[in-house]
Amino acid sequence: MRNLFVVLLLAACESTPPPIVLSGPAAKVTLTPSPLRLQIDDLSGKTLLASAAGHLVSSTVDRPSYLPQVTPGWDGYVANEDPWTYAHTKSVLARDAQHATLALVDGDRELTLDVATTDTGVTISTTQTAGDANEISIGFSMPTDEHFFGLGERFASVDHRGLALYAWAEEGGIGGGESAATGATDGYPMPNGPSMTYFPVPYHWSTSGYAMHANTTRRTVMHMGDEAPDAWRVSVNGTSLPLVVYTTDDPLVALDEFTAATGRPVVPSDWMWGPWRRIDRGAMVDGTDEYKLMRDRKIPITTIEDALHFLPHLSFLGETDQVAAWTASVHAAGYKVLAYNNPYVSQSDENAAQDAAFGNAHHYFEQSPDGTPASVYFISGKLQTVSTIDLTNPDAVYWFQTLLQRTLDFGYDGWMHDFGEYVKRDSHLHDGRLGDEVHNDFPRMSAKAAWELLDKKRPGDFAFHVRSGYTGSQAFTPMVWGGDAEATFDETQGLPSVLRGGVNLGMSGVPYWGSDMTGFKCLTDAPNDKEIFFRWVEFGAVSPVMREENACSNPVKTKTKWSLWNDDDTQTMYRAMASLHTRLAPYLRSLALVAHQKGTPIMIHPVLLFPHEPDAWAVQDSYFFGPSLYAAPVVRRGVTSRTVWLPPGQYLEWTDGSVHTGPGNVTVPAPLDRLPLFLVADRLVPMLDPAVQSLVASTDSTVTEQTVSDRLDVIGALSATGTATFTLADGTVLTATSGGAGDDSTTAAASVDALATCDSCSLVDMFGQAVRVRATSPLATTSSLLIHGLTLTAKGPSVRRIRWDIRLLP
User: Fold this and answer.
1) What is this structure's pTM?
2) Which residues on neighbouring strands pair with residue 122, listed in sequence order?
């Protein structure tokens, strides 16, 4: 009898394998085969992720339908899923100290589950090897205090807990109007709700202390508590789901690791940081060419867009001489100039007939199942039928680049690189994949083709901007613009939504972003008035790229919106905001280097710096603009004072010098012409001379950065014994330290030339609640000043005067 008990016990042990423990440099994994369960702990023993027993891997059969859409750019996908069923362990196929593979069964389906520790965390992958499932899911328990951030350019939410968000690049939605409450049923973009985005990235960071990337180009859905209050899961429209987990409670470290794996952000051209304006080529305002009037009225603009459509339909034909002459004229006035392209060729416009015939003959287009070029009907300059260039074909990529080269041949410095969301699910691509697998990745491939052409032809001297993208796009994209926003305070598609989109994209590894400033679409009944114009321009000034859109698009009637030229007050405000953004160029260039090295965004949501502050999780309309500034633009109608949650630390309000201490809410004045903006304690902001109108050289009297390159303004706020340091893109290190000896002389390191400038060195006054000290260094590569207890040093390769403006906080 005893022997029989031993046999049964051994049999039970064989059928129920013990937990498998995997150890790595960043995490420990406990994988329990039966009931199947996964737990990931950090090295301190804190549990980051854990599945409920038996509820880790599930699968189903989906027989989706596709609703007809007003525009083919909207995803009409409607799931029709069988009940999800859970897999259990059949056997352990392999294991060692850092890796394990299990064979799973789910009814008649067979799957594998592969788990491994890595230098940065854990990888988890499940794949169906036999069976009929076409959707797979991996799920986890969700603590009550877990919140989710990132997932690409999402317009409806910042903290995504409670939502289901799919990743499928599509056209922007339609706004619900200014009265629609965000988060309400009617407060989401129509027709498809909060998921709608041009730029999904299936990467998120969790307040539980990890980040996760669904490493697939197929359509995924993140269910973040919409199905159950204590569980979340990610599913894929496919038979394989690979996940990469970064086990760090520092979201900036996670972004560093994520962008190291998927592509570092590029370093844009130096001139990209000057304001952009879209104008109509040849447009006259008050009898003067608009580009000349901007110079006459001292409106600081570096880049002009004219939106001349080279692709898809060669709209320059018939005016080639005029176009080339125009680009030469605007260059002489100190502008860069951008045109328009997209990855399509028109099949209906006679201008593109030769291109279409060539592409058709060489099978350079995405192919329909019947073997003919796939096509779609939409507006690109005008209504037309276009075909998508098949960028999985290297020969088609080269051909695409020859088409893009035409833009450079006319003297343009780059272009709007539009669209990219139209690859059809059932299309056949050159590399053997179907459209459902290529669709999300196509915008990245499109940007890559443009980047590689421009980087070869004009290294360091070009720009283009995309609206669509996916994981990895940041490695080929100088700038993303937020798509076709509604020109109102619309919660779903207007100013509040684009701010959310910008900070979300930054939390997803894409740092260079700007909105369609003042809006593009004029579809709802809300006024496209002076108030929305002012507030959007203020927001644009503290966006990584300040870019104005001049359209007021409505397909059924002509509408107009407030313009820069409507009155003098508008020009005064615009001039001030454009000057602020222009002057911040040295600051932004340095931030771009950090973004390139570490994936750090420029618009930094406070959760990235204060991940353990619950109040930070709820912030939707303020952000750090780099490490030295905290921006709280007004994004709703009728606001004249702004309540702002400030993170821990001290802050000095930019306009009135009031001093505030966080964490907590403060209320500051916000009249129509005022941007609520704060200096962060113990930080510096390098700025150009206020006279600069453009960041590129000109042959006329325009004051450019080059004109006044011998001077640099440095503004900072210091606590009583604080030190602030900032490194410029050229390697110059700026340092300000308070608590020095307090005499009114320069140190020995300052030359006689410094003494000659010390009329300003002795000026000490009040700036709001702060003592203000201003001092000018000698013209030198290295300088040091000791003035009123401050030590101010600059060490670097460039010869310049440093004009210090330091505010000493009480």
Assistant:
1) 0.95
2) 117, 245
